[in-house]
Each structure stands twice: as structure tokens, then as C-alpha cells.
Amino acid sequence: MAFNIYDFTTLTKSIHEGLSSQFSPTATLAIEWTIVGLAYLLFVALFGLFLVYAERKVCAAFQQRMGPMRVGPWGLLQTIADFIKLLMKELIMPKNADKFLYNLAPFIVIIVSFLVISVIPFAPGLATFDFDIGIFFVTAVSSVGVIGILLAGWSSNNKYSLIGAMRSGAQIVSYELSVGLSLITMIILAGTMQISGIVEGQRDMWFIFKGHVPAIIAFFVFIIAGTAETNRGPFDLAEAESELTAGFHTEYSGIKFAFFFLAEYINLFIVAAMATTVFLGGWMPLHFGEFESFNQIMDLMPGLFWFFFKVLGVIFLMMWFKWTFPRLRVDQILNLEWKYLLPINLFNILLMAAVVLFGLHF
Amino acid sequence: MDELREVMITTDEIKTDEYLINMGPQHPSTHGVLRLLVQLEGEIVHNVQPHIGYIHSGIEKMAESLSYPQIGHLTDRMDYLSAHQNNEAVALCVENALQVEVPDRVKYIRTIMSELSRLASHQLWWCVMGMDMGALTTFFYGLRDREDILDIFEETCGARLTVNYSIPGGLMFDIHPNFQRDVKAFIKKFKTKLPEYDRLLSGNVIFTERTKGVGFLSKEDAIAYGVTGPTGRASGFACDLRKHRPYSAYDKVNFKEILSDVGDTYARYQVRMAEMWESMSIIEQLIDNIPEGDYAVKMKGVVKLPEGEFYQRVETARGEFGVFIVSDGKKNPYRVKFRSPGFSNLFAINHIAKGWKIADLVAIMSTFDLVIPDIDR
After folding, report:
1. Which of A57, B211, B229, B264 suits A88 as a labelling partner, its CA being 20 to 30 A distant?
2. Do the chains contact at A242 and B133, CB–CB below 8 Å?
3. Distances (CA, A) of B218 to B1, B3, B111, B264, B318
4. What is the pLDDT of residues A100-144, one digit of tens each?
């Protein structure tokens, strides 16, 4: 049977049928879970490495330098070399650290990232979970990650870590609101919380165009709050190199540090993927209402391409402002959320409700 | 200003225990081995106690067993970013003591080199300022332009950082034939690059929010603490020695003393940015008019100062740098004392940073433009 790059349903179905004919239903399920788990592990590891490389190259471009160039062609193997270095490094634990919590913290952070990634639809038929409260699941699970950061800061027995963790706690709990509310704004437009439904609703036009003004506002709020939630610059107060050396992961080394590092990049991907799915049409190609031939050309490109094209675009945007802006101060970051983003968001929900109610959207 | 500080303290009604945190000796924002013992309540700084001495190299004591021309070579290891100005201070001090009049050519070249050093120093300060605020890109923009100045230094005297160019009696070597051309090319290029600095950092909303109205130093306090240089001038303290006690060729050029009466972090930033323009204007006025002549006067093989006390101050990139030499008529000084700008400036930090947040402390420290060997000597 032909491999369809446009729709993965046939592929997954044939795998399922093939396995069912050989094994019992329980064994089939177990094998499928293993395959899916391994696929995610592989994806996260490779994409994480790619993002680290991309970040270095992007930041190098902004800073008028070349970035890694020595290991492999154009430094392509640099991040792999760095990863091997991190794996082989000694794991140092500070004296009087809370041993159990200290070891637990990086796992909480990385597991949460994996959980969220499981609902993201990469292409037609390429999503693990698709339940009717998909968006709710994303916001609920992603907020658990802060526990890992708080534990890391608390158990390290280091004042820098503690300050970083407390900052991060205050920041993530606050920005959680904006992320949730901007998603709710889009749910009003979509009329469903099921992620496949949201993507399907954007077949003719992406929501950012369909919902025009309120959708664009929601998009910007989501990008700002999403960046804040991933603890990336200009909201990297939890790390704040020049103030707190490395913030909550000051005392972590080797693979445990790598977990925090990787989780940061997966979270970056998650925010970009959610922005893509909810605002930019997920894996849907770019369509302009009446231009039939244009739409058909766009349809030629597979969903996987569209998804990653948009995700990388959003990631580039987030890297852009990380490498341009200075860091905010802790009181300013909370002011921004509670005094500006939140009221804007609440007003925006009303606006979106009015737009949907009176059918003012395209 | 004091009210603002009080508001910040009193609005925090939740009282927690104060705790101490050691910033340094190894810390990204102290730019060297400076240790700040910071007393914090939550994020708010209650007390900052600088501890110095981690890089103390005993230059003053060493100078007692060296001859006068040799002392100059030690001074560019102190404030390595104002190396030329430090050399110049020693050279001027010895020349004044011996009442040697150097040719005009020497004065002009010294002034140009001083201003180039100031530019290079301010560029590096700008890089680091951005980095301390979390904008890492500034670092590469500043270093890119600083490279041109260092190339000019290298061509002139072979060294890029510790230049060793001014010696008692004149200069080590004459300028390179390309010197004027290169300096003019640099000025022309940097005039287009400096507005880029403003676009990247000065105009940024986050940057202005973090620096405006933060970390006040009043004029009275600046004078009381002996805060000089751009840091003092941002508080309205007219302390530019180039203007008030002109030396070398500063009496032959037209330039403004940059003053601000605000005294906050943003004012200190703006004063340095404006000083870069002034430095370029000074260089432009001098570069085409370097008179012909010798690049040094003939000095005796062994320089002996007459018995007495001699003091010379110059304006380095950080403020007032003084050389005090007590001579007993021998070839070595009896005692040498350097008045370094960084030392006096640093100890005003507790006064300024009290009541502000840790992030503000870092920003305030950054506008002080500290060079630790300058403080520790």
C-alpha cells in the first residue's frame, strides 16, 4: 500500500491491523504504546537537539557571528557533542540538599513536557490523544511543571536557587491565567475544546484571520504569556544569569541539568505548537477563500510540512525577542500580567463573544 | 527620591526574615573578583557591603622599588580599560616634578589616545551594561566596534590592551603613518554605529522602565562619597578634569562637559552615551592638526625626582585618577599612592542600592562601570 504523506490515518490503521492479526488485543495495545512512547522520545530528543542548534545559529545571526562551525559541517554535530558531554559529566549534589526532592525535580519538569506534547496534532492522523477537552488538558498539565521548578529551587539548599524558584512560581502562576484566557477566547470562536475539531474548523481560514481583531490580540497575548511560561528571555527571571547565576538549576549538573535544559526547549516547542494549532490552523495549508488554483497548490504541500513551517516560524519569533530585549524586573513582570495582560484578555473575551454572537467574523 | 525608596519598602507588608547572600567573588555581574555581601529581605536589598582584596597585587608597594619610567608600566595593569590615561598620569606627574615641557605633538597624540581609550572603555561598558540587564546581543555589537580601536592601538604601539605608550618625557614611539587615516575611518564608521546602540538598548521600553527612576544618587552624596567621572556627572557634580584642570591638549579643544541633574541609573547611562559623542568630537578637532616635531624629549638615563610631594590627576573613563608621589631625591619614589576612581565610586553602592531590588542592584553596579584591579590595586 502506498505511503500517504498527506494523511497518516492509513499508515496507523494498517499498523494496528497488522498487529491485531498477530497478537491478542492487550499485547497489541502494549506494543502500540511502546512504539508511540519511543517515537515521542526520539522526536523530543532529536527536535530538542535541533532547537538548541537553531537557537545558537539564530542568536549568532543576531549577534553578527557564525555560531558553532567546528564540529561537523556548519557545526551540525556540536549539540550532539555537547549532549554527550552532559551525559558523561559528574552529578554533583550539594551538601544538605533534600535528596529525594532534588532528584525528583528534573523528572517532574520533563514528564510534564512529554504529557503536553502527546495531544499535539502534527499532521492528519498523527496525534496520540484527541479527547473532547484537549485544550483544557494542555493548560491543566502544563501548569504542573512549575512544581518541578519550585522543588528544584527549594531542595538545592542554595539561596540563588530559592530566589529563582520563587520568582518562577509567581511568574508561571500569573501567566497561566493569560495563556488560559487567550485560549478560551479562541475556544469561543472554535466552539469546541477538542483539538482535532479546532484544526478542522480552520480548513477554510485560519482562526487568526477568521477572528480578526480579537484573535490577533489573543495571539499576541498568548505569545507573550507563553514565552513567560517557558521562562525564556525577556522573562527569564528564574534563571537571570547576571543576577542569580543560573537560578533554580544552579546546583544541577550533568544529565539532570540536561533535563531542565531539554524541558525548556520542549516547552518552547509546545507553546509554538499550541499557537500554531489554535491560531494558525495547525497542519492546515494556507487557503484564501475563492482562489481555487492557489488553494490547490497549497494543498500539494503535506500537513507535516505546514505544521513544522508554522511552528518554526513562531519559534523564530520567540528567539528573536529573546536575543533582543533586556530582562524585566520581578515586580514589572507581575505588573505586566495583572495590570495589562489580564484586563486586556478579559475585555478581549467579551469582544470575541460579541463577534461570534453577531457573526462578525469571516 | 527618599520617598520613592520608602514606598518600595513599606508596601511590602509581608515581613520575612532577612538573609545574606554572597554575590561573588565569582559571580557573572561583578565582572571580576569582587564580593558583595548583600542583605536581602525577599527581593529587596537592605544592605550591600563590598568586600575587596581578592585581586590585590600590591602595585603601590612594588612602585617603591622601581624607577619612575618603570612605574608607568605597572599602572596599565590597574584600570586596564583606561591603560593609556593611567600611563599619562604618571608621565605627567614626573614631567611636572622635573618641570619638563613636552612638545605639542606629544600632547596632541596623548589626548587623542586618551579619548580613544575612553571610547573603547565606554563601548565595553555598554556591552556589559546590556548583558547585565539580560540583553546579550549588545555584547557583540560593542565588541565589534571596540575591535577597530584596539587595532589602532596595536598598530601604534604593538599592544591592544596594556598599551604602555606614554612614558615620562613623551611617547614610547611615534605614531604609525596610517594612524590619522585609521582614526578618521574609525570615527566615520562609529558615527553610523552609535545610533544603532540607541536603537538596540536606549529606546527599549523594558530598558527605560528598569533604569528610569531607579538608584538615585544626589549631588551632595556624590561629592560626599567622592564619586567622580560619568557616575558623578550624572548626579550633577561638575568634576570633569579635562574641563576644570586641563592637561595635555584639552585646553585647545572645544567640548561640552556632559552633566545631568537626575542622578538615576538612566542618567548615568545617558551621560556615558553622550560622552562617546564628545570624545569623537575631540578626536576630530585634533586629528588633522597634529603638529610636527619630536615624539619625546631627551630624558636622563636615570630619572631622579627632586625631594618633595607631587600630585597629578587625570580624567579616566571611570573618573578622577590621581598619582601621588613622595620623593626623597633618589631614583625610586619613597611612597606612591594612586587615587583610583573605582574605589571611591564602589563604596557609594550601599547608599544607592538600599531599598531597591536585586535586579536594580545589578543595573546600578553596571552603571558604575567597575574594573576590579582598579579598586584593588
Report:
1. A57
2. yes
3. 9, 14, 31, 9, 18
4. 888 888 888 888 888 888 888 887 777 777 788 888 888 888 888
Report chain A residues touching chain B, CB-CB < 8 A. Answer: 59, 62-65, 159-160, 163, 167, 233-234, 236-237, 240-245, 323-332
Q: What is the ipTM of this complex?
A: 0.79
Contact A242, B29 (CB under 8 A): yes
How many Cβ atoms sit within 10 Å of the Cβ of residue A91?
Answer: 11
The residue ranges of every structural domain in chain B are 56-376
> Alpha helix (H) ranges present in chain A?
9-22, 25-62, 78-88, 99-117, 134-142, 145-155, 159-190, 195-200, 207-210, 212-229, 241-244, 254-278, 292-300, 303-322, 330-335, 342-357
The chain-wide mean pLDDT, for chain B, equals: 86
Nearest-CB residue to B28 (from A159, A245, A331): A245
pLDDT (0 to 100) of residue A301: 76
Q: How many CA atoms lie within 13 A of A358 on its CB side?
A: 6
pLDDT > 70? residue B9: no
- Band (pLDDT 50/70/90 cuts) for residue B353 is confident
Cell numbers that stand for B289 in this block? 592638526
**CB contact set of B145 (below 8 Å; sequence gap of 6+):** B123, B189, B190, B193
Sequence-distant (≥ 6) Cβ neighbours of residue A32 within 8 angstroms: A15, A16, A19
Residue-wise pLDDT tens digits, B183-214: 999 999 999 988 888 888 888 888 888 888 88
CA-to-CA distance for B374 and B370, rounded, in angstroms?
8
Q: How far is A88 from chain B (nearest CA, A)?
A: 25
- Closest Cα of chain A to B180: distance in Å? 28
Tell me which of A156, A157, A325, A340 to substitute to probe the interface with B (most B C-beta atoms closer than 10 Å): A325
CATH assignment of B56-376? 1.10.645.10
Burial (CB count <10 Å: 0-12, 13-18, 19+), residue A96: exposed
Residue B130 pLDDT more than 50? yes
Sequence-ordered list of residues with C-beta below 8 angstroms from that of A3, at least 6 positions apart, any chain:
A11
Residue B135 and residue A163: Cβ atoms within 8 Å?
no
* Best CA proximity match to A339, nearest among B363, B209, B354, B135: B209
A interface mutation test: which of B18, B19, B34, B133 has the most A CBs within 10 A? B133
Q: Express each pLDDT in B135-172 by its tens digit.
A: 888 888 888 889 999 999 998 888 888 888 888 888 88
pLDDT in tens, A30-80: 888 888 888 888 888 888 888 889 888 988 888 888 888 888 888 888 888
Phi, psi of A118 (to 5 degrees): -70, -20
Q: How confident is the model at residue A1 (pLDDT cuts 50, 70, 90)?
A: very low
Select from B43, B127, B128, B212 the residue whose CB has the most chain A CBs within 10 Å, as the one to mutate to test that interface.
B43
Residues facing B312 on adjacent strands? B323
Q: Are B208 and B189 in contact (CB under 8 A)?
A: no
